[in-house]
Predict the 3D structure of the following.
Amino acid sequence: MSKIPESELILNSDGSVYHLNLHPEEIADTVINVGDPDRVGMVSKFFDSIEVRKQKREFVTHTGTYKSKRITVLSTGIGTDNIDIVYNELDALVNIDLRKREIQPQLKSLNLIRIGTSGSLQKEIPVDGFVFSRFGLGLDGLLNFYRLKNDQEEQQIVEAFRHHYPNEGILPQSYLARCSNKLEMALSEGMFKGITASCSGFYAPQGRVLRYELARPNFIETLHSFRLGEHRITNFEMETGAMYGLARILGHHCCSINAIVANRITNEHTHKGDETMNRLIETVLDRIAAGL
């Protein structure tokens, strides 16, 4: 078996993976991803005990136990470029022998669960509601650097969206992947479900206007109006598409659950964001402990 060169898999002097600064034994099989480093503590405050606390750059990690279930919570920072780092390094921790620099003979699948915030793209999905992403639609271009294989349903959806929202040779080609069926069954009860679009930025890439003109002034309406049978775009943020695509490629279970903090159709914004996020965190933790 060929070794992975040092230039391809960079390790720190203590043998930990480069960006996350973690060793294999420091992560659980279930990893909650949050964007905001401060949100790691919002999750781990519910733990019964914490065995690992680490931070490097925006990547904060706490591993502990909640109702006898070992769980890691790890901040990714904002954007799909950070997801590229986090998911590849998490996979390396469980599927590569870091000392030998060789792929493990038996591969392992992690449960990767995003808890985040998002903007609603449908009037009937209110602020402070919860959205479970059945599909992640990437508008950022990251997965165009990988070979992502779609099933027939995914291909139909993404081709319909590309026709509905052509890139006109300027924007990255969109991509799409589905969530883990296992995680949907365990975690999604009572939540809104649909397609979550992941954007490459927060301002113009999400249709916000400050001191500039938008190249795509109808962006919000274009996402809002997309339909293919029962499929519609429920919300958008900046990570889910890459998470679903990379999890598919690397063989992990993945889902994304978002608290809605703004409705871009009604122009409403939450006034109780922390309360809503705490409610979502506790809901997801309880369902992980009960069903994974």
Observations:
- The chain has one domain: 24-291.
